[in-house]
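Continued from yesterday's entry.
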Amino acid sequence: QALPIRICAACVAFLIVRNCIAFPFAMAVVRFALVLLATAGALRLSLAPDDERIVLTPQGPVPAWAVLDEDWGEAGDIQAKRHIDPEAQGFKDEARVLLEERVAVGSRPVIYFVGDSLMRHQYQSFCELATGLFPPQDDTWRVPGWKIMHNCSSELGYGVFLWSPEYAADVVDVVRSYGHPEPTLLYVVSAFHLMHMHPNFTMNKIKLKHCARYKDDLRELFDQTRRRVPNVGLTVMTPYAICESAYRDSWADLVKAHQQDPRVATQPCIDDMLNETTGYDKATITDMCSKAWFLRDGSIWIRDMVREVVSSSADLPGGAPSLIDGWAMSDGDCDHTHDGRHWYRFNWLQLSQLLHMNT
């Protein structure tokens, strides 16, 4: 008698998922249904590790380790949150003039924006500048292979955004495989999605690897890109500074715990990584879990590694990469961030700097 009930319950869950997944409240409905079924014994829930799971977001499925609270919930439409003050408007006008000057001498830029939400916001601002239209993030950003990519184009320039939370040496080949032209400029950032607020925003073996290899990954990206495109401009951005005072709820609780005793707060990260097959010893795991906190000190740690790699790359064929110091421009400016880690008001300044550095 219990078997038919369980089968019916599972069918109900399937119908809920199939018919409700397109609605904003679908995730809550699905979670509630699955919990009820699991409690009743009708369904056994088995969660894969974070680096293997796929999470259903309002915009579709994405890898669990790439999801950072509001990044997908905001649907990429940051216009309502952007703070366009007179100074920012001035940098926007300056960036447009620089684009027009490039086009006038026959040097229309093709810019690859590669990274996380920090780079996505600058890409969206570039598109608004080049086309007059701000591209909200939607399902058109998804391409085969679970990749998140978008492009915009006008007579002023061609931009491509590729979601890549870590440095990937083959990024030019990946983007070109989708039919995009060769870049004149590669602009990258890798920071926030390698950090953790464990166990709320977890460390995992992929993030651990890229934290441990951070400087090597960045240098390899520079080397491989210049081999593929010898004359390409290379620019890397440091992360923004962190205003952890803006964190709320469970993240604020972790900030307090870390302030009280960093070793105790870090131990769950260490324990969980020791239980994973990471290929790293306890000393390395302890070091990465301790340094990669999604806090101001963690952003300083990554900033310093970026600066070190750039300063040691003067011998790179084609010239040293340029650096946009997002950390320096945002440090202490906690009044203009809604979440402690994003500053939309700096997008135009960064684009202006990017074009100045790569004329």
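--- second protein ---
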Amino acid sequence: MARRKRKTTVTAQIPSTVELTKLKSGNSLRIEVRRGEQLLGTLSMGRGSVEWWPRGNKTNILRKRWRAFADMLDEHMK
């Protein structure tokens, strides 16, 4: 019997409006990425940076300023 492929699920917790550019607003956009029921990680986007929190890891996060994040994506696309 063929194995059933697991779905990757992305859930965003969004209030009606998210203003990320206001100084000291404390707002951020959090996106949970799951494969089936398993949490792969959480992507957090704020005014100054983007953070990737891998599942089960509260200390070794990937944090990039927006310019560095864009450069990283550009480099990956080459």
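The helical segments are 66-77. The mean pLDDT is 82. Will compare against the first tomorrow.
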